[in-house]
Structure formats: structure tokens, C-alpha cells
Amino acid sequence: MSDKKSYKTVAIIGGGLIGTSLSLSIKKNNLCDVIKVYDSNIQVRKKLKERLSPNEIYESLEETVFDADLVVLCIPVGSMKEVAKSISKLLKDGCILTDTGSTKNSVIKDVKPYISQNIWFIPSHPLAGTENSGPEAGFPELFKGKYWVIVPYYSIPNEVMDNFSKFLSGSGAITEIMKPEYHDKILAITSHLPHLIAYTIVGTATDLEDQTKYDVVRFSATGFRDFTRIASSDPIMWRDVFLNNKGAVLEMLQRFTEDLTYLQRAIRWAEGDKLEDLFTKTREIRRSIIKEGQDK
Amino acid sequence: MSDKKSYKTVAIIGGGLIGTSLSLSIKKNNLCDVIKVYDSNIQVRKKLKERLSPNEIYESLEETVFDADLVVLCIPVGSMKEVAKSISKLLKDGCILTDTGSTKNSVIKDVKPYISQNIWFIPSHPLAGTENSGPEAGFPELFKGKYWVIVPYYSIPNEVMDNFSKFLSGSGAITEIMKPEYHDKILAITSHLPHLIAYTIVGTATDLEDQTKYDVVRFSATGFRDFTRIASSDPIMWRDVFLNNKGAVLEMLQRFTEDLTYLQRAIRWAEGDKLEDLFTKTREIRRSIIKEGQDK
Prior knowledge:
homodimer; Rossmann fold; 6-phosphogluconate dehydrogenase C-terminal fold; 3-stranded mixed β-sheet; 9 strands
């Protein structure tokens, strides 16, 4: 094990967009000596063998996590509990367990009961992704320049944290420490609500009569298209996100609905000043994003 | 006047993103002999003189439309009535008058009363734009490969229509004929509702407490950012759009709200199958858009 590597053996559970991208990034950046990748689906494993080396793909959870120094759960948040239960007794002493789920309170609640004292469970969440899913969609640069949120919800020794951060930084990510509640709130407004709204409006269009629907597709370049991209994200992953961040999502949704109703009323009563005021205010946020370099 | 040109003299009223882009495109593609551009704002005229030739920029509507074969109103839809009234007596016999407004029923209602029988009023709408506005934002390729909808709401001779279509095609646009009601309905779902929703969610985020708002900006790459781009579009233009396509926007908004309420209830009651069904269905629309080549 070289001095530069945080871990000797890394096990990736789940070969979707995130798991495949992380595996490719680990190999490209030489972040460990041995990488072991597992997926429960035989078709996914077949594709993984084309993206990685066939001998890096495992058929059983037991073999995958055996002797691993770091185990990364790259699975939908709805599956965390079951997988944590399955692997908890198989992890070696001192093993670091992390996940990449989009909700953090629920993952902690689901995984924590199965983690013994000699394992360091450090939840995390890479704020990276595309609308594409599956092993074909993975690429090693996915995390480059993106935030990777770490959620150490209990006291973890500095050297354990530093080593884990160093590993994540090795993929090009910028690490950021956050409390689980705050993570779930920030993600509810920046990611979960936008996805829910995009899914809704594309669904609304889907229910239009055939000719209209066809023309909506043809003339989609006028705003709608951006929503369809977001609304083509992985259905299972997103179903689980909404079910597992219910509180924060429903709260943000309530605020959004109030604000939308206010605008709806302004349109109905032709109150142009109210519309103009809001439309002017929202430009500022865009300027802040450009200023923070988060616009690409 | 060359055989290839549809019009000798073209007058552009309004030097924003659309008016400037059209002027630059006309010059680049050599679509007329004389171009005359007007804007009521002295600062805009100053900037236009840098983007075009100073002698092409006019200070009065009267001088601008004098002797024009084609007059294009590139102004917010809320200003159409006033400008139509001002120029109606100044247009020469046989002049073509068009507009580039995002709503068509309202523009016809506002402009029609002022148009004398020797003028051909042919409303139109280029489905092209960016979130940037003003003369600095204009560029000659804006219309390239984009649809330009023509809305001839009464009988117009073929040669007049053909000549007008040829002119628009000269800018690289793909012309498409539509009825005003249908245009307003399609645009309500593909453009107006997406903009309203984007403005709303960015507004909702703007009202969060300061630290949260700052982090929303930092972690915006997860979906929210796409909405901020849309929500930084020109406030006056969009205020006018909503006030002038009230019927179609409110109808689509009603459908959208029903669909969102359905999903909200599914989240509250943890009905994962309902979420998954919709999220799977919405992927199809994205695939259709990619198939139609409208994804870039």
C-alpha cells in the first residue's frame, strides 16, 4: 500500500451511474490497490465487466466486502437498510462504511442499528449526477469539481476523517461537512423539489391529446426541454428520495405552492407589478450562482 | 434590389435580444438593402450603435418605418398596442408588418384595429431566445435551426406569404404555420408554465434565511441551477407574457397544480408505486425530444 493511497481494498456496492463512475475514477486516479464491485443484477454485472476488469466484478456481497478497508453503498436509499443488514457481520475491524444516498437522515436511521462498534460508518453524498443511469452512463470525471458532502453524525477520530476526505478528494471532489438535518433541507430545495416539479410538468404534458403532445415535443426548446432532462432521471432512485426525505420535501413543497398560488392570483387579477417584482428578484440568485462559479 | 432579397428596406422596432439578433442576422445573411433599427431608450440606442452601424440606428419611429417594406415589432407584448397605434398611419402601401411576441391572440387583438387594408399584418414568433437580454446579448445565429411560427389569422396571398417565409428562412429559421389559439396553448405548456414555475421556485429559495440561501447557491448544481437560468429571463417581457396569455396559462397551471397535489399526497402516504409510475412515464417524453433532434 503506497503512502498516497487512503485504502488498500475498496468495495463498491451497486453498479449504477454513481458506483460505476466512482469505480472508474478510483482506477483512473489510482486511489486503491484492489477494487471490488458488486451488483445484484446479472445484466448490470455483465455491463460492468465491459467497463471494468471482469475479475473486479463480484457475484456475492460476502465476497465483495471481504477484507475491504472501505465499503461504499451506491444504491437507492430505499435499499440501504436491507444491504446494511446483509453486510454488517461481514465487515472487517476498522472498516469504513459510507454511502452515496441523496437523503441522509433516513440512511442513518436505516443503517446505524446494524453497525458494530469496530466499524466507522460515515454517511456521504456526492452532489454529482446526470439524467442518465446505469453502468453505461458512468464516467471517471463525474465528481471532478463537484461537492461531496460528508455527514459525520457522531464523533469520528481526525485521522479517520482526514483519510476519508483525502480519498474523496482523489476523485476530484470538493469535500464539505454538514449535519444530516441541514443536508436534507438544502437538498430538498436545490434538488428534490426541482426534480418533483420537473416530473410533474412533464407528466402534465404527457396527458395532453396526441397532436398537442407531439407539438410540445417539437417546440420544447423554449423552456420545457430543460425540465424533460431532469425528469428523465432514474425512477427508482427518485421514488426512494421522496419517500425518504418526506418531511423536508413536503415543507418546501408547501412554501412553493403558496408562492405559486400568489403568482396565479396575480396573473388572474392582472397585477403586473407583483410579477415584475418577483421576476426582477430572481435574477439576483442567478448572478450569485455565476459569481460562485456554479453555473457550469 | 437583388432577386434573392425579399425586401429592400427592413425596419426593426426594439433593440433587445431579438431585435438585435435579427438585425445582425439580416446583415450577416444579406437579407435586405437597407436596415433601420429603432429603440425608445437612449442607452439601448447607444449600445446598438456599437453592435450595428451608427447610421442604422434611428431616434424616431416615424423615420424608422418610413419607406420600409417590412416592419418587425421586437418589443414586449404589452407595448404592441401603443406602438401599432403610433406607426399605423406611417406605413407605406403594401408594407408587411410582423411582430415577434410570445403571445399571439393578444397581439392580434391589440394591433389589428390599427392596421389599414393596404398593410399586410402577419403575426409571428421565433421560438428562440436565451436567458440574457438587451442589445449586448444579441447574436446573428440566434434563429439558426429554430422554429419561427407564422400566424396568418386571415387570408393572405401566397406570394406575400412565400416572400415573408423566405425572409425568415434566410435567418436560418424553420418556418411553421399555426393558428393563434393553438400557438398560445402550445407555448403555455412548453414555455410560459416552465418559466412561471422556475420563477416561483427560485423565488421560494430567495425567501430562505441567509446562510441557507448562500448554501442553496453553492449546492445549486443538483437541479436548481437549471431553474435559475430560466428565472433570469427579462422581467418585463415575461410579466407581459403572463398578463397576455392569461387563459391558456391559468388552464395549464390548474392541470399542473392538480398533478402536483396528486404527487404530494403520494409522498405523504408513502405510495411509492404512484411516484415510480409517473417517473417512468416522463422518461418517454425525453426520448421523443432526443428522437426529434430537439435536445440541443
